[in-house]
Each structure stands twice: as structure tokens, then as C-alpha cells.
Amino acid sequence: MATLRGVSGVVGLVLIVGLCRGADSPMSPNPTEQARPDGMPQLLPDPTNTGTANGRPTVLPDDVPESRPPGVVVLFSDFLLLRATRTGTEYALVDSNQDSVPEGILRVLKTDYHAGFRVGGRFRPGRLEWDIGAAYSHWRGNDSELLVAPAGGQLYAQHTRPGLVETADVASTRARLGWNVYDLEFGREFTSDSSRLRAHFGVRITDANLNLLTLYDGRDAALARVLSDQQFVGAGPMIGGEANWHIGRFLKLFAQGRGGTVIGILESTWRETNFDDQIVYADLWFRRQQVVPVLELLLGGGLKVRRFQVEAGYMVTAWFQLFQHVDFPDDLHEGKAIIHPTPTSLDGILIRMAFRF
Predict the structure, then answer these.
(1) Tens-place pLDDT, residues 159-196
(2) Domain residue ranges in the chain
(3) Which pLDDT tens digit goes with each residue over 47-71?
(4) Which listed residue, 38, 76, 134, 188, has the most CB atoms within 10 A of its CB?
(5) Rounded to two decimals, what is the model's pTM?
(6) CB 283 within 8 A of CB 274
(7) Which residues of 82-115 are buried (b: 16+ CB within 10 A; e: fewer)?
(8) Residue 7: in which H helix or E strand, if any?
(9) With pLDDT > 90 as the criterion, what percentage of the chain qualifies?
(10) Bridge partners of residue 174, in order along the sequence
(11) Contact predicate 296/287, CB 8 Å
(12) Looking at the domain 72-356, which fold is it?
């Protein structure tokens, strides 16, 4: 009995010591819980919380910043086949009679198509949305015509002063027109799946000249000459845009337009002689500032194969009040000269080859 009581006492003592230690030591944490500094258990993070953990987002942002557009380089070369049209080119009245009543057809110099060219390009760096472009255009035309009075008729001279050389048997005229145009522009493109729009503005520098020579012979004229030489140099702002519509994979239609004002200086000489330059009837010179509105339109279509493009279209360019025409109203006021503006336009075909990188 004494032995059993001793063993029971030892077991009871061990249980009491174990219970005391269990009350003093904390409970083992749950593997799914995390301990906080204060010793309390930490619950799992809320999955609906979109905040950051460890400095990293738990969900993707709604808007992803777009990458910058790649750089673009465009090089082009145009073949121009244009015809010039001007006012003030009437040089003779064809009268089938020789009475004092002017009647018949007023003859105007007919112009043909002449070739020219335009070269240029534009560049847009990858870090910018605006591009810069430049182009150089050259065109020159030379037209002439010879006219003989009909049998029993006469020609009334249109470029001479009244009261001096009135009639002639033969008339010939020659017009040389040319221009050099330099364009510098800044533009921006707006693209979609089936179209591309581009707006641009810039500066145009123009160097244009006109040389007009008319000869009369017979009756009142003895190798009478009327020479007009004009030179215009100016610059001014231009603004415009272009649109391209893609049809299928390779074809497209396009429309381009631009307008502006060129401000410059016009220098002009006007000289009339008779008897093969032996007698001078008039010799004028003037220099004046000109404001010339400009308008250009181009419609056409093209073929695109990867980076290479071939385009063709119809082009119209109008220069308002570019040159001047001198006119003497009558023979009573011999020194009175009236200067008329002569608008000039060019129209024709444009063929373009372009590379886009």
C-alpha cells in the first residue's frame, strides 16, 4: 500500500507540474496564421484588397501606357506634265475685211503640256508625333504661235499702243513661263485601320518668271516688237491636308489640298519698238510688292506594295494676281498706262513614286 501511495503521489506531482507549464506557455500557432508583434495571431490577407504587398501591385492596372510610335521616313519623286493658262494672252484680232470696223475672232495663244518635276521627303523621329518635310518643284513651259491674215483681211494688234501700230499682216507670239518652288512644312498624321489623315502647315518660297514677246509685220508694222519680262520672288505661309483611303490590301485613293498667301516683289519691264528696234514707242519699268493667293488641289489613286508606292492623279495649281499686264487705254493720254493683274493657273497629270520607311 505504501508503495502504491508513493507512485500515485509521484504521478500526481508530474501532472500538476505539466498543467502549470501548459498554462504559462502560449499555444502553438496555426500553420495558416502568422504571428504579429504583439503575439496575437494574424489572419490571411483579404483577397478583395487591391492594395500593394511588398511594393508590388496585386492586380494589373486598368490603363497600360502606349508605346511611342516608331520613326517614319518618306521619300518621293513626282513627274509633272502641266499646262499653263493665263489671262492677257490675246495678241491679234483676225478680221476677214479691211474696213474700219473691227470684227472677227480674237486669237489667244494656245498652250501645250510641258514636263516638270518635284522631289522631297519628310521625317518623323520616334519620340515625336509631328514630322518635318521639305520639297523642291521645277516647271518651265515655252509656247509660240504664228498667225497670218486671211486673204482680203487684216490683223488688229492687241499688245501695241493705240494710234501707232494698229494693223498688220503677220503676227507671232512666244511665252516662256517658269517657276521654282521651295516648301518647308510641319505635319501630323492620324491613322486608322482603313484611312490615314495628315494635316500640315509651313512656308513656301517662290521664284517665278514670265517672258512674253509679240511681233507684228506688214501694214502699220515693220518688224514691230512688244516685249514684257517679269520676275516675282516671294515667300509666305501655307496650310493644308491630305487623306488616304485604303481599298483592299494594295489599292488606295487620295485627296490633297493646300492654300496660302505668298508675299513678294514683282519686277517688270515693258518695251515696244518698230522698224526692227530702230524706233522706240514705249519703254516702261516698275517694281511693286505683290500679295499672291495660292491654291492647290490633287485627286488620284495609287498602288502600294510594302514600302513602295506608285500614285497618279490630276493636279490644279492657281496663282492669283501673280503677273501683270500693261495696257494703254487710248492715244490721247500717251503716258497713261493701266496695269491689270493676270491670274495664272497650271493643270495636268502628276505621277509619284514614294518609299516609306
Answers:
(1) 999 989 999 999 999 999 999 999 999 999 898 888 88
(2) 72-356
(3) 555 555 555 555 555 555 555 556 8
(4) 76
(5) 0.77
(6) no
(7) bbbebebbebbbbbeeeeeeeebeebbbebeebe
(8) helix 2-24
(9) 63
(10) 144, 213
(11) no
(12) Lipocalin (2.40.128)
